[in-house]
Amino acid sequence: MAGVLAGTLLAAPAPARAAATAAGAVLDPAHSSVSWQSPVYAKGTGGGPEKCPDAATDPGGTVCHRFDLTVSVPDGYWDDNPEGGVPLSIGWERPADDFDLYVYDDRGKQVASSAGTADPEATVIPRASGTYHVLVVPYAVHDNSFTGTAYLPATTDAGDLTSFSGGAGSYTIGAGRLTARADFLKGGQLRLQADPSGSLSDPAGTAIVRRRPALQRHTSSFDAGDYYGIRSPEAVLRVYKKPLRFGLYRPDNRTRIWQEDKPLRWSTGGMRQSLTRGADEQFFGGGEQNGSFSHRGRTMYVANSFDWNEGGYNNSQPFYLSSAGYGVFRNTFAPGVYTFGAPVTTGQQERRLDAYYFLGDAKQVIGKYTALVGRPFMPPVYGLEPGDSDCYLHNANRGERHTLDALKIADGYAEHRMPLGWMLVNDGYGCGYENLEQTVKGLQDRHAQLGLWTEDGIDKLADQVRAGQRVAKLDVAWVGNGYKFALDACDAAKRGIEDNSDARGFVWLPVSWAGAQRCGVLWSGDQKLSWDYIRWQIPTYAGATMSGIAYNTGDVGSIYRHDARMYARDLQWKAFLPAIMTMDGWATDLTTGKPADQQPWRDGEPYTSINRKYLQLKERLLPYMYTLSAQAARTGVGAVRPLWLEYPDDPGTLGAQAKYEFLSGPDFLVAPVYEDADTRDGIYLPKGTWTDYWTGRTYQGPTTVNGYHAPLDTLPLFVREGAIVPMWPEGTTSWQTRDRHELDWDLYPAARGTGHYTLYEDDGVTRDFTKGAAATQRVSMRGDARGTTVTVGASRGDYAGKVDARTYRFTVHGGTAPARVLLDGRPLPRSAWSYDAGTRVTTVRTPSLPLDRGFTLRLAGPERNRTGTAAGS
Question: Which pTM was predicted?
Fold first, then answer.
C-alpha cells in the first residue's frame, strides 16, 4: 500500500488542522486533518503488537506509541467517498528504520494495519466513526521518531462536458479542470483515463502492464444530442454531456454493458466510479479474497493485508469481472475499495482514474486481463508434486540440526511411498544453510529439487541456482516499498532461476499484486489450523482463478497447529490443487501442546495410508493437471474453478452450498469435508450426469446431495459425464521414476454423444517448450446404443525424452459388460480386458503401440437382431 498512496497522504492539504495532544485528537468537519510527533525511540522491539506492554505500564509510550483518534462525521459521510475512510500514515527520517502501524476500534478489534518495510507506512480506517486506538510499533529503529498524519477526505464531482475531440481510436474529453482520454484497443479493450489535475499521469509505468495493446483505429464518433458516441467494432462508448458521465454499450448502442449513474468523483487522495447494477448482475475477482469467490452485495478491499484468515486480502488485485460481459483492471499500485451494491462504486486511493475494460464472457475476460498483465507461468512438473518446507539449521523449535538432515526427511517420503517434488530447507528467519552442493545432489538422487527462502536477498540467487537451487520463496519482507517492490521481487526471483540454469522459474510468495500470476505461486500465508481454516480456503482458491491466478494454495494442515484428522481432511482436497506444500517444524499438537512435525506419515495409521492414497492419486493425475497448466499459460484460466465459471447459467452455482466446493479442471467436482463429521450435506451438482469417483453411483443434476457417506478416508468426489482423464500408472511416486512406456486413460462416456480431450506433454523441466519442443495427443470418445468408441490420435510433436511407443490402460465407467473389445477392428483376447460388475468398469490393456500412429478402441455391446433385442434373448 505504501509507495504511491503514502506520497498522496503526506501531501494532502490541511485546511483545518485539529490540535493534537499527547493522547489524541478529533477529526470532524471543523477539523479535517491532524498530525502528531512521536518521541525518539532508541531501539526497536523486533516484533509486533505482542511486544508492546499495555498502556498502564508504558504511560510515556517509551516502548510503543499510542494515539487515540476520534472521528465524528455525519451519517452517510462515507457512502460515496472515494477513499472510503480516514487515510492514516506514519513517516520517519531514516528509511532504513521500520515502524509498523496498527489500528483498533473501541472493542479492541483490529480494523486496519500497515506492517511492511515501507517508509512511510499507510493505511485507511474504513468507514471511520468513533474512537480508534492507533498503535505504532518501532520494529527496527535506531534513535528515530515518526510523524503521524490523518485527514478527512473532501470530495468534488466532475461537471459538464467542455471539450470533445479525437479520432482513429483515441479521444480526449474535458470537463472543466478534469481531463479524460478514451483509447480503444485491439481485441475488444478500452482504456479510460481521467485526472482532475488537467494532465494524465501513469505512476505504474510498465511495472504491471509491460506492453500496451495497439490502438483499434477503426473507430468513429457521432453526436447523439445528450451524448457523444464513439463506435468501435466491439462496442459504443457514450460520453454524456451534462454532467460528464460514461457508458459502454454493445455495437447496437442499445444493450448496456456498464453505465455510470453519477459522474466521476474525486477526493483529497482518491477517485471513484459509480455504476448502475443490473438486476441479476454478479461480480467476481479481486485476486485472493479469503473466504469468498462472488461479491454481489459485498464490499471488497484491494490493499496490503497481513490478515491471513477469512476476510483478509493479502494477494488481492485491482480487477473484477461482471456477468454483464466485461471486466475492469485499475492500472495502479494504490489500494482500492469496491462496493458491489446498488449502485456499484469502485475506487482507488489515488486522485486519478486509469482503467482497462475487457469485453466478453468470463473466460474471455480472464484471458484478456492476463494477456495485459501477464499469463500464468508454466511450472516445472516437479512443482505440481508436493513440497516440504522447514528450517534444518539452527531451528530452536526442533533442537540442533543440519541442512543435510533434510535428506532423512526425503528418505521418509520414499519409505512411505509418498511423492515429493521439492524441499525448502532454510525456511526460518535467520536459518541459513550449509553443505549446499551436497544437499542439492542428495535431493536430486531422491528425485526432489532444492528450494531456498530468499532470506539473504535475491542477489544471492545466481550462485545458489548454479549450485542447483530450483525453487525460490519470497516472504512478507519483500513487500518493501509497496506492491511494486513485491512484484519486482517476484519477477526478479523467476528471472534469477532462468538466467542461471535451463530450468523454469518456480517462485512462491504470500503478498503480491496484479501480474504476480506471471511469475509465482501465491499462498495464503501463515494460518492456524481449525475446521474453519479448511472451510474458507475452498472459495478462496477457486475465486482467485477469476483473476487469472492459476496457482493459489495454503499450507497443508496450516503452519502453527496440528491435528491428525484435520490434516488428513485438508490434504484430501488440496490434492486437487495444482501446487501444495507442507510447512514443517513450527506446529504444536492441538491435544498435547507438544511440537508436531507435519510430514504426511507422522500420525501413523490410519492417517498414513489415507494421506498416501491422496498423494499417490495426485501424482497419477499429473498428466491431467499438467495439461491444465499448459492451458492456463495459453488462456489465463487456471485449474481450480468455482462452479459458476463452467455453469454460468445455473443460479445454483452461486448458492451457499456451491460456495464450499469447486471444480478441478472441467471434469472433477470436489466437495471437501470441512467439519468433524463422517457425512457431507449440501453437495450441489450442476446440470448433467455425475459419477461418484469411489462407488460408480451416478447422479442426475441439477441436484443437491445430502447425507453423503464420507468416512475419514473418503473425499466427496464426482466426475463429469464425458470426461477423458489421462493418468500415470498406479503406484507412481515421481515424475522421474514413472513408467514412461504406459499411459492410462480414465473414461466416463455419455450414453449418447461425443467428447474430446487433447493431452499436452513436454520434457517437464526446461524452457525448450517455448521453442516448440512439446507434443499433443487428441482423444475422442463416442457413445451410442451399440457401445463406446475411443479414438486415440497420433502424438504430434517432439521433445527430449519422448518415447516411441507405449501401452495404454483404459478404465471405461458405466454400462454393461461388452461382448467384444476391438483394437482397430480386431478383437482383443479376453485376457486383455475385464469387467467389474460391482463398479461397472471395463478395464482394457493394449499392447505397446507406436506414438506416431493413432488407433481406435471399440467396446461393442451384444449384437442386435431386427427387433432390437440382443441376439439369443
Answer: 0.93
